[in-house]
Specification:
Elements lengths: L10 E4 L5 H11 L14 H9 L3 E8 L2 E11 L2 E9 L8 H15 L4 E7 L5 H7 L3 E7 L10 E8 L1
Parallel strand pairs: 4-5
Antiparallel strand pairs: 1-2, 2-3, 3-4, 5-7, 6-7
Helix pairs in contact: 1-2
């Protein structure tokens, strides 16, 4: 998929194993803001490789001039799609790359037969809720996290959008 506009000729494509280190770097840099409440890094190259090798999971990457500038994890489970770990390199944020990655994730899931797209974020990331609402997502639940990745209890905001 080629994206037109400010980042033309940015390309969004399915990640390969060769992209794992760079995907992990982009995600971990973007999620540094969560170090206040998260233990360790958000992901690792080995976790990215594991996702890439799964049948119903993949990463999409945004590439500009041969350099990766963004990534998003995508999963399909029956008629439900999910995206997570949306991340864009700091120097190119606020230019539509994140939105383009979400739209590509939605298109992938729609093509796989999904009728709904889901995602979740920590309640602490208050700046993200309006961002996703502008893309048509709505809050469906707020619940305590059961993940041991957090330094203290947080609540997870679940959101979805009909495809």
């Amino acid at each position: 998929m080629t994206v037109s506009g400010k980042w033309a000729p940015m390309k969004i494509r399915r990640a390969t194993a060769l992209d794992a280190d760079e995907i992990a770097r982009i995600i971990n840099a973007a999620f540094e803001i969560e170090q206040e409440f998260r233990r360790g890094e958000r992901t690792s190259s080995s976790e990215v490789l594991s996702s890439i090798s799964m049948r119903n999971e993949l990463f999409l990457v945004a590439e500009d001039g041969g350099r990766l500038v963004g990534a998003v994890e995508v999963r399909v489970d029956g008629d439900t799609g999910y995206f997570g770990m949306l991340a864009v390199d700091a120097p190119v944020r606020r230019g539509g790359i994140g939105r383009a990655l979400v739209e590509a994730a939605e298109a992938h899931c729609r093509g796989a037969g999904c009728s709904v797209m889901t995602m979740s974020t920590g309640e602490n990331r208050t700046e993200l809720i309006p961002y996703y609402e502008k893309m048509g997502y709505r809050v469906t639940a707020v619940e305590p996290s059961t993940s041991s990745a957090f330094k203290y209890p947080i609540r997870v905001v679940n959101m979805e959008k009909r495809l």
